[in-house]
Structures are given as structure tokens and as C-alpha cells.
What we know:
Layout: E1 6-11, E2 38-41, E3 51-61, E4 64-69, E5 84-91, E6 94-96, E7 102-104, E8 108-113, E9 130-132, E10 143-147, E11 155-161, E12 175-176, E13 178-187, E14 196-199, E15 202-209, H1 212-231, H2 235-245, E16 247-252, E17 258-265
Antiparallel strand pairs: 1-13, 2-11, 3-10, 3-13, 4-5, 5-6, 6-7, 8-9, 8-11, 10-14, 11-12, 14-15, 15-17, 16-17
Helix pairs in contact: 1-2
Amino acid sequence: MQDGEVFWVEADDCYSGQITDASVKRPDIDIGIMDCAVGPIDVEGAHPGDTLCVEVLAIDLAPQGVMVTSVGLGVLGDRITEPDTKIIPVHDGFAHFSDTIKIPLTPMIGVMGVAPKSGEIHCAVPDDHGANMDTKLVKVGSRVYFPVNIEGAGLAVGDMHACMGDGELSGTGIEIAGRMCLKVTVYHDRPIQRPVIETFDGIYFLASRSTLNESIKVATADVVEFLMKKLDLSFPDAYRLMSATCDAQICEVVDDNVTVRLHCPKFDTRIQTL
């Protein structure tokens, strides 16, 4: 892809299309190919140390999604005694959960990231390079920034959801296939260490670590450094300002690493963008 190019990506659901109807349960499928992403997509002009911005322009969903339960899956997985699969029709702007319950669609992309600095990491594991961050803010209108670690960045995307709440507490959103329209831009003057999301109302700093406390600490440090740089503040003042204005939010707590985001509102003209 060229810097500034707009393109479409088609992707299976997180189960790689293995669950075709309610008779197929999670233990029946190959877990090793879950959360596979489409990529790597090379972006011309992206060099190590640069920042890649991915703007989400559109998301088109398949006509049905799927949610499973399985023993041990999610926060209350210890209460599941046998696996179960639910197929959920998607049309007319709603996910039709049942004959009496329909949910307004909130399409988002669960897996988005670039190549890590070294080695291999499964797409299902979120880290400083992005991947399975499962944050519902990766949606139409958002700009998602990643640190470029290798030549061409190696962008990969997948794992779309028709609807998903913060935390993805049962271990799954409404998993769905479809396609997404993206635009890539390379910045040479906005170095970052971890994914950042920009929306109309704020800038969100993401961190994925093995525990919630670790993730929050990393994201907090990133925001404080951002405020110090943008507003020319000392550490104590930036620390205080962060605590007075910013919100700690949970993205997901069910993957190998826990992902959080720290929301910094655009309360000052100097912090309108990354």
C-alpha cells in the first residue's frame, strides 16, 4: 500500500469461518487458527521509528454473527457446564439476539496491529504492537496509531464484531465476518511506543500487560509523558492534570494480556491530536 491509500480488507470471523451453524461448538474447532488477521500489509515509506495511522472509514458486516459459551471461557466460565453456540442474524441496523431482543449494531475491529519488534506473536495476543486489543473504539471515524517496528510496518487486521461491550466479559462479542475500508498514513514526527486511538472527543492511550494493574500503570505513564510534552509541564503537574481530567477504561480482560485505555479529553487546543 502507498502512504495515504484507501483500500478494503475482507476477513472471516474470529473462528476463521469454522462455526457455520449452532451444531458446531467451540471444542469442535481448531483454536490454533482463531483470531487470525489479514496481512501483513506493507505500507510504502513506513520505517522503524515512524508512526502508522490507520483510519477506519467503513465496516460492512455479514448477515449473521455467532456467540459461543464454553467451559472456562470468560469471567464466569467456571459456571459453564457444557458448550453452546448461538447464531445471531444481523440486518436492518440490529443484531437480532432473539425474537424479543434486538441490539443496535456497534461494528468494531477486534484485531489491528503491526509487526512486533522481534520474534513471533500470535494475533490473539495484544501487546505494544497492537493485535487483539478488542477495544470497541476501533470503529468508523477513529484513527488508530501504531509504532512502526519493521520496514513497511506489516499491518494486519481482522476479528470484527457486530456488537461488543467493554471487557468482552463472556470471552466473545458478536463475532462476524465482513469487510472494512481503511486509510493508512505514515507520520515521521509523532513517535509512540504503544497503540493510540484518536476520536472526535479525545485521545486514548492503550496498554496490554499480564495484569490490570500493570496495564493501567503503563497507560498512565504514557499519558503523563504526553501532557508533559504537549503542555510543557513538570512531571508533578502533568501527573496531577492527568488525574483530574483523564479516565481509565477497560478494553478486555479475557485474553493472555489485559488491555486498558486511558482517555485524555481534548480539553486544551494544544492536545487536539497526537
